[in-house]
Amino acid sequence: MLYSEKVLDHFSNPRNVGEIEDADGIGEVGNAKCGDIMKMYLKIDKGIISDVKFKTYGCGAAVATSSMATELIKGKPVEDALKLTNQAVVEALDGLPQVKIHCSVLAEQAIKSALSDYYTRQGIDPLPIVGEIKEPEE
Ligand code: FES
Predict the structure, then answer these.
(1) 58 Cα: distance to centroid of ligand 1 (angstroms)
(2) What pTM does this model have?
(3) Which of 24, 89, 107, 124: CA 20 to 30 A from 117?
(4) Considering only CA atoms, which of 64, 83, 70, 66 is closest in space to residue 7?
(5) Interior CA angle at 72 toward 137 and 61, to 5°?
């Protein structure tokens, strides 16, 4: 089996799909090679990610990784979201085929992009906190 049960579950039944109208941070990243796009919306109350939604126009692994990424940060402090790596998302999904790892990077970067927007809106320079948003090119 190429994909784990968890990947298939999150692909066919993705969690937290949609938009947040009054989001506190919105991020969008794309992968130039495959053309997939991910959009991430964060609602942040007193430093806690109280809600998160995403929209992914992309492959199955991109849908599954963004779904899992939102589950991993929902209800957590912003600091935890800042530390979320694509490896953590892949592990939570019981693995991904090597050729699909870049899809999980897109999920990590989409969250970072939304956090950057959150800090920018507050007049805080996001670069020292969030780091650079890298769009994977594999
Ligand atoms: Fe583009 Fe998966 S193939 S994100």
Answers:
(1) 6
(2) 0.95
(3) 89
(4) 64
(5) 40
Q: Contact 114/71 with Cβ under 8 angstroms?
A: no
> Is residue 23 included in any domain, yes or no?
yes
Q: Does the beta carbon of 105 lie inside 6 Å of ligand 1?
A: no
Distance CA 36, CA 24 (A): 24
Residues that are catalytic: 34, 103
107 lines ligand 1 (CB under 6 A): no
What would the pLDDT profile of 26-78 be if each residue is shown by its tens digit? 999 999 889 999 999 999 999 999 999 999 999 999 999 999 999 999 999 99
Q: Is the CB of 34 under 6 A from ligand 1?
A: yes
**If you take atom 4 of ligand 1, which residue's CA is the nearest one?**
103
136 falls within a domain: no
Tell me if 4 sits within 8 A of 57, measured CB to CB: no
> Which CATH number do you get for residue 82?
3.90.1010.10
